[in-house]
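Amino Acid Chain and Its Fold in Token Form
===========================================
Purpose: to set a sequence beside its fold so the mapping can be learned.
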Amino acid sequence: MTFIQLTPHQLDRAQRVGHLRNDHKIGVVQNKRIDQRQDDLTINIRGLWGELAVAELYHVPIDDVQRLNGDSGLDLEIDGRTVQVKYNTYPHGDLYFNTVDDFICDLAFLTVPFSEREGAVNIIGWITREEFILFHTRRDYGYGSRVIIQQNQLYSFPCDLHKCESYVWTI
């Protein structure tokens, strides 16, 4: 795990980009949100916290281009590899997608809150798309089956994305 506390500037950027990603869709794009406890804007902003934390760790920019259909899954690139960053609001939550086909990038990172403090992000780890496909399981959190990898199945830090040895899976 790697802890990142976002700066006030990064928190402002998350708010600004979150509004850019969210506001133009209101009344235009049908809401596909499953977890009704959070609104779309909050989900966008927290997702941006995760993206900004991973970008900070690897010194790369995030994809903050405004699109009607969202970011299509691509959040950033690290050393030529495409990356999806997922933010789970539960500190011990899993990395999950609705379907395997929703994992479209080379890598996925799991981020979670570190504390109640705004912008306190724990980067739990990452996995390749191929490994996710091979080792995922299914779990139903109460709103339909999802494909998941548990936190202990992710590569942790420090670990060079190109030099990690095969992971010992404990499924």
Notes: The longest strand covers residues 120-128.
